[in-house]
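Listing S7. Sequence submitted for prediction.
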Amino acid sequence: MLLTITTTHQPATDLGYLLHKHPNRCQSFPLSFGKAHVFYPEASTEKCTAALLLDIDPVGVVRGRTRHGYDRVRKHEKTVEHYISDRPYVASSFLSVAISKVLATALSGRCTPRPELAKQPIPFVAHLPVLPCRGDENFLRALFEPLGYTVACEAIPLDETFKSWPSSHWPSSHYRAVTLTNTVRLADLLSHLSVLIPVLDENKHEWLGKDEIARLLHYGDRWLTDHPLKEQIANKYLKRKKPLAVAALQRLMEGDDPDAEAEAAAEGWKEIAARKPITLNQQRLDLVQQVLKKHQAKHVIDLGCGEGELLQRLFADKSFERLTGVEVSYKALEQAKKRLRLNELPVHQSDCIHLMQGSLTYRDDRLQGYDAATVIEVIEHMDPDRLPAFERVLFEYIQPPVVIVTTPNSEFNVMFPTLTPGAMRHLDHRFEWTREEFQDWAKGIAKRHRYDVSFQNIGFEDSEVGSPTQMGVFVKGGK
């Protein structure tokens, strides 16, 4: 199993700095399924090629001696056929593991002696002499070309064994010699290979679980959310386990998993976590914070605060003087209490932030006296017949000068192929509104209670279906 990476960037031997592997040395690394060797067939100032060669133990893989057994087979079920495989020769998920172990520093985008070099897109040619491609060549191109690669692909002829067969009966070869050319950061090139090579290989070797989702999130952190085939990539990477694929896509779209972050730190991926693209949830919280500061709100009440994400963000901003979170779920409040570390705060800080259990459809004197109220991804969890009571409590009884409401845009749901027509994004959602439905509801409230209301999209915006989240900002004083 071989991967070569070539650059003509001047001086080309800078590739050694990026890979943290000296061009004049041949290095070997033990892996659970064999050994990996890194060496340079060519190293000059004009052109430099690094090779990653995997020497896989096919017997150990089948017998389960390795930590990651490849399609482990029970002892009484093994036949000679199980020991005959393409694993030692073709690029597969074993190569993805080797990249993450042997080239971890390069994959993370770090280059201590030349940090500016790691951030710079430079010309690379990656060559995979044998790559399984089950399906037509178009799928291979559809994976790499949207990422900016020029793809050269050549079918590998079948073995001489079939020469005696009539040509019409020859089985087609699904192996390709593939060359990928692009000007890109080395970290991005390695992350693309780490995800897409297992996608092309039906025989992904590893057992699946939450750690696989974490790997997919980290490998695809900079590019997967924008890839036109992201659903197929997640599904195939996770061996067609749809619940895992859906969970991975939801985390990419909505936010990070604390367990995944902990694993990333343990594996030395702090730099990747630091440069993750901003998620939809982060965009939503950022915009809410900006709107609150624009209206100079000092005292804010977060209605339906959940586990306290927004409160945590606002508490770190010294421009907010008094914060209160209201939540009906006791369990969520306990999580918010831990997130905010309320038991550890000094007295002068603990007086500035409070949590309380309460319903948003009943009058409560404790809810009054705030400059602004936020209702972030909450109304869709209410039964529609409870919305009038919520409206009266918030806009008639509390009457904060500023109210911010966000909710999903149901029109955007067609962008999620995993959702069947008419299905909602969350099992607890009672409804999801179109943009027109949300605006009609908000404008009716504004007219009845003398507010001005404006609307804003949050997240990627499609020309036809809008963005995944819609926001309404109500300001007291309308006619």
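Caption to Listing S7: primary sequence and predicted structure tokens for the chain studied. The longest helix spans residues 186-200. Confidence is low (pLDDT under 50) at residues 65-78, 205-210, 240-245, 254-276.
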